[in-house]
Specification:
Elements: E1 28-33, H1 41-55, E2 59-63, H2 75-79, H3 84-94, E3 98-103, H4 112-122, E4 142-148, H5 156-168, E5 172-173, E6 178-180, H6 196-216
Parallel strand pairs: 1-2, 1-3, 3-4, 4-5, 4-6
The structure holds flavin mononucleotide (FMN).
Residues 35, 37, 40-42, 104-108, 149-151, 155 line the site of flavin mononucleotide (FMN).
C-alpha cells in the first residue's frame, strides 16, 4: 500500500529541513529583488534565498532586474513596439511556476522599479499569438514575498501593498512572509544570513513556496 502523502504544510525546526520527496520533480523557482542598487539589501537577500532554495531542491533562476533594458511604462511607447526585454521578462516569468520577490520599502510601499516591471509584464501585446493575454505570465503562479530594510519593520509595509497587487494578477500569494529588519547587520561577509532566527524565517517562506508550487502547478 502507498504511504499517505503529507496533508498539511511540513513544519520546520532547527534540526530538520522538510524534504519534498512526495513529489520528486524539481520546482522551477524565479527569484528577483525590486532594487538595482549595488549594495541593495534586497539583492543580498535574493542571493541568500537562492542559495537556500537550491539546498532545498528547487531549480532556481535568480533574475537581476538590472540586466533588463526596460523603460518607464508608456502606452504610446508600447504602441510603437514592446521592448524585446519585456518579452524576455514575460517568458522568464511564465517558465517558472513559483516566484519569490524581495521587496524594498519606499514611502511605505514597494518601489517604482517593481511596479514598472510588473506593469510591463502584465500589459497585453495586441495581436501577439502568445502574449495577447495579459494574465499569462501571472495566472496561478505561487508567489512568496520577502522584504528587507535597515529599519525596525524590515520593509513590512511594502508587502502590505504587494500582496493585493499580486492577488489582483491572480497569483497564489503564500501566507508565510517575512520582513528582514536591521538588514545592514543581517548578512555575513559571504552573503548568508547570520542569525538562526532570520535564516529560519526565510527558510519557512522558501519551504512554503516550494510546497505550494508542487501542489498548485
Ligand atoms: C524614496 C525612498 C523612500 C523610502 N522610504 C522608506 C520607508 O518608507 N520605509 C523604510 O523602511 N525605508 C524607506 N526607505 C529606505 C529604503 O528602504 C532603503 O534605502 C533600502 O535599503 C532600499 O532597499 P535596497 O537596499 O534593497 O535598495 C526609503 C528610501 C527611499 C530612496
Amino acid at each position: 500500500m502507498k504511504p499517505p502523502t503529507t496533508q498539511g504544510f511540513p513544519k520546520t525546526n532547527k534540526q530538520q529541513t522538510p524534504q519534498f520527496d512526495d513529489n520528486p520533480e524539481m520546482t522551477k523557482l524565479l527569484i528577483f529583488a525590486g532594487s538595482t542598487r549595488q549594495h541593495s539589501f534586497n539583492r543580498q537577500l535574493a542571493h541568500a534565498v537562492a542559495a537556500m532554495a537550491r539546498t532545498s531542491g528547487a531549480d532556481v533562476t535568480h533574475l537581476e532586474l538590472s540586466t533588463l533594458d526596460i523603460p518607464l511604462y508608456n502606452a504610446d511607447l508600447e504602441a510603437r513596439g514592446t521592448p524585446p526585454d519585456v518579452i524576455r521578462l514575460k517568458e522568464t516569468m511564465d517558465a517558472h511556476p513559483a516566484w519569490i520577490i524581495c521587496s524594498p520599502e519606499y514611502n511605505g510601499s514597494y518601489t517604482g522599479l517593481l511596479k514598472n516591471t510588473i506593469d510591463w509584464a502584465s500589459s497585453p501585446i495586441k495581436g501577439h499569438p502568445v502574449w495577447g493575454d495579459s494574465s499569462k505570465p501571472f495566472e496561478g503562479k505561487v508567489v512568496g514575498l520577502l522584504s528587507a530594510s535597515n529599519g525596525a519593520l524590515g520593509g513590512l509595509r511594502s508587502l502590505s501593498h504587494l500582496n493585493p497587487l499580486m492577488q489582483n494578477l491572480h497569483c497564489w500569494v503564500c501566507p508565510r512572509q517575512f520582513a528582514l529588519a536591521h538588514a545592514g547587520e543581517a548578512f555575513a561577509a559571504e552573503g548568508q544570513l547570520q542569525s538562526d532566527r532570520n535564516r529560519q524565517a526565510v527558510q519557512s517562506v522558501v519551504d512554503q513556496v516550494i510546497w505550494a508550487a508542487q501542489r498548485l502547478s
